């Protein structure tokens, strides 16, 4: 039990022990140097004591500078030894020259510094070797090692690395796995597997926690292995990533998978069947919110068609600038007639100028605030922005007879429980109201769920947390969301504008909803890390191999499950994955426009509770 207590000392306690040992070694080395020099028992003088103190402080300063004492002794490896020898040599040089110039003060023979250097170096190296073996032996004896490690792939003279892993008391080295028998002589266990499919049951049987892969794999090969082993929740490291072999198990990100590969979605060009269409020829198109994640992707998709003019509008200067830079360096778009307009769409007069100076045939309305939490905490301006820019677009589309107007909505507009969902539902009502009164113009609504890579999606948040070594937050273990790629979403928006009839609500077939907790686990595994789920956000001791997932509880206005339509019965269209919701047949209140004007008045004056209650009456 004493040994177990000693092994499990805190990092600070172990560091303090190291410092005390080094102080003792320096004092002993200096004293012994005098004994060897004078060949008799010798008690140093007061001035020689100053020599000892200077020697000691110089060495400790160099050790602290190299962070030697910040690394627990159980993690020491061969790379530490050269650093210690370097520090003793620098100390020797410094003390030698100081003693040379101040010999009369220190009263220390110059040969003492040489003897002291060799004694200190020898004793320090011996100390570290002894400590390594001490921790290794007692960790194994006490059977406290929980990490089982295997090496997968050709050995390729990696014996120094393997010996370091074997000496590291944090791991039980179980042996090697490969599809080919090794050419080198191997003294450890070797497990032959016929193919990569055989590795899963073997790792599961041996309860492996860490896997080092030395095979030379391309990106697709790594994705295939990470995906096939994700159920085992392993720490996986690829040696061909340019990793420093002395820092294999740090928490730095060494592999970055793409969203589509993590979730198993394919990035295809969904517009190939539309390239021959002439619907867009010699026509002008306006995209609002063009600087956003969905708006910018939609803008790039539309540039693949033969519109006569493209007008991209956004209220964010940096977002519009980034879109322009993205387009500018694409040689396919050099001859396109593109206008970038920095504009707050709430300004009716400035927006009106765009309609006056252009003959717009298509409007794709993507501008809106979409982050649920930010909209909730800034509900007044968010409501005004989302609802009344939509009204401005519809009024000007009616006035200038724009034939095709497409609203990009969200699944949160179905049975909404938050301000963002309510605002988007009102936007849908505005489009349906204008479609009812303007039969010669198309006012079309498109609706989809969580779009991979969009600013409103949880997926970029997960990625940012993992790449900055932060925990992932999931509201509930049962939370589900519909998920599709941003490429697919924008392609279906364009398709809906071709087949859409006025007043229609087009829903995208996004397959089955996916569990967010399972996605969070998969994200972590696909980066090569392990996960652990906690039902609390209290401080926990962080393991560098594990990224924690905290279950935080549903936030205000958040739903456990989202829906794409009020009715489960959806009608097919001529395009795959594009469906029509039966909501198109629902009636709109005759006093809707009066309510919309009244809402504009109370947004600034009434409480959130009163406004929310009124919004629910409107829908």
Describe the structure.
- The chain has 619 residues and is of the alpha/beta class.
- It is 45% helix and 16% strand.
- It has 21 helices and 21 strands.
- The protein has a nine-stranded mixed beta sheet, sandwiched between helices.
- Helix 2 packs antiparallel against helix 3.
- The longest helix is centred in the first third of the chain and has 33 residues, at 110-142.
- It is elongated, with a radius of gyration of 34 Å.
- The mean pLDDT is 83.
Report the principal-axis shape.
elongated
Radius of gyration from the CA trace? 34 Å
Name the beta content range.
15-25%
Q: Which regions have little confidence, pLDDT < 50, spanning 5+ residues?
A: none
- Average predicted local confidence, pLDDT: 83
Could you list some keywords that capture this structure?
alpha/beta; 5-stranded parallel beta sheet; 619 residues; 21 strands; elongated; 9-stranded mixed beta sheet
What is the structure about, briefly put?
This protein is an alpha/beta fold.
List the helices and strands and how they pair.
Layout: H1 2-7, H2 11-38, H3 46-65, H4 80-101, H5 103-106, H6 110-142, E1 147-152, H7 159-167, E2 171-178, E3 190-192, H8 199-205, E4 210-213, H9 219-228, E5 235-238, H10 259-263, E6 284-288, H11 293-302, E7 309-314, H12 317-328, E8 338-342, H13 348-356, E9 360-365, H14 372-377, H15 379-399, E10 404-410, H16 419-437, E11 442-448, E12 450-452, H17 458-467, E13 472-474, E14 480-481, E15 483-485, H18 486-499, E16 505-508, E17 514-515, H19 516-526, E18 530-534, E19 546-551, E20 570-572, E21 578-581, H20 592-602, H21 608-618
Parallel strand pairs: 1-2, 1-4, 2-3, 4-5, 6-7, 6-9, 7-8, 9-10, 10-11, 11-16, 12-15, 13-19, 18-19
Antiparallel strand pairs: 14-17, 16-21, 20-21
Helix pairs in contact: 2-3, 2-6, 3-4, 4-6, 11-18, 13-15, 15-16, 16-21, 20-21
């Amino acid at each position: 039990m004493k040994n177990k207590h000693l092994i499990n000392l805190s990092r600070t306690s172990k560091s303090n022990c190291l410092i005390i040992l080094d102080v003792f070694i320096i004092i002993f080395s200096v004293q012994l140097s005098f004994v060897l020099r004078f060949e008799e028992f010798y008690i140093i003088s007061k001035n020689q004591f100053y020599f000892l103190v200077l020697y000691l402080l110089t060495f400790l300063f160099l050790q602290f500078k190299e962070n030697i004492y910040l690394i627990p002794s159980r993690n020491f490896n061969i790379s530490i030894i050269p650093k210690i020898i370097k520090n003793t040599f620098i100390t020797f040089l410094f003390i030698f020259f100081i003693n040379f110039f101040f010999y009369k003060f220190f009263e220390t023979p110059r040969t003492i510094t040489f003897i002291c250097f060799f004694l200190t170096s020898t004793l320090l190296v011996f100390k570290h070797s002894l400590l390594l073996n001490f921790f290794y032996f007692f960790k194994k004896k006490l059977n406290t090692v929980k990490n089982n490690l295997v090496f997968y792939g050709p050995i390729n003279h990696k014996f120094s690395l393997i010996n370091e892993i074997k000496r590291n008391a944090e791991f039980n080295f179980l042996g090697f796995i490969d599809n080919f028998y090794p050419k080198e002589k191997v003294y450890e266990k070797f497990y032959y597997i016929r193919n990569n499919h055989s590795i899963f049951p073997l790792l599961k049987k041996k309860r492996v926690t860490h896997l080092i892969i030395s095979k030379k794999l391309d990106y697709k090969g790594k994705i295939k292995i990470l995906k096939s082993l994700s159920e085992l929740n392993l720490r996986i490291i690829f040696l061909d990533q340019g990793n420093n072999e002395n820092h294999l198990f740090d928490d730095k990100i060494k592999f970055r998978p793409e969203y589509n590969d993590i979730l198993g979605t394919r990035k295809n060009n969904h517009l190939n069947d539309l390239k021959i269409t002439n619907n867009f020829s010699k026509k002008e198109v306006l995209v609002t919110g063009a600087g956003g994640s969905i708006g910018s992707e939609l803008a790039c998709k539309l540039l693949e068609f033969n519109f006569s003019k493209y007008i991209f509008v956004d209220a964010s200067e940096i977002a519009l600038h980034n879109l322009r830079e993205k387009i500018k360096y694409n040689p396919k778009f050099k001859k396109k007639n593109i206008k970038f307009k920095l504009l707050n769409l709430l300004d009716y007069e400035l927006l009106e100028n765009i309609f006056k100076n252009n003959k717009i045939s298509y409007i794709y309305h993507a501008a809106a605030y979409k982050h649920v939490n930010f909209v909730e905490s800034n509900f007044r301006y968010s409501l005004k922005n989302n609802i009344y820019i939509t009204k401005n677009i519809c009024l000007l589309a009616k006035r200038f007879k724009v034939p095709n107007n497409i609203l990009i909505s969200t699944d949160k507009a179905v049975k909404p429980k938050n301000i963002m969902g309510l605002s988007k539902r009102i936007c849908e009502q505005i489009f349906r109201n204008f479609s009812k009164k303007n039969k010669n113009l198309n006012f079309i609504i498109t609706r989809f769920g969580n779009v991979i890579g969009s600013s409103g999606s949880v997926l970029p948040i997960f990625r940012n947390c993992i790449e900055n070594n932060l925990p992932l937050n999931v509201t509930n273990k049962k939370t589900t969301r519909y998920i599709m790629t941003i490429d697919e979403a924008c392609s279906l928006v364009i398709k809906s504008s071709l087949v859409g009839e006025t007043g229609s609500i087009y829903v995208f077939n996004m397959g089955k909803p996916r569990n967010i907790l399972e996605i969070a686990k998969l994200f972590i595994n696909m980066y090569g890390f392990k996960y652990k789920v906690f039902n609390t956000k209290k401080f926990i001791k962080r393991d560098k191999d594990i990224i924690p997932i905290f279950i935080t509880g549903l936030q205000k206005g958040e739903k456990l499950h989202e829906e794409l339509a009020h009715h489960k019965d959806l009608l097919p269209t001529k395009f795959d994955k594009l469906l029509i919701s039966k909501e198109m047949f629902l009636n709109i209140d005759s006093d809707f426009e009066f309510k919309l004007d009244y809402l504009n008045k109370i947004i600034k004056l009434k409480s959130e509770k009163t406004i929310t209650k009124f919004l629910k009456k409107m829908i």
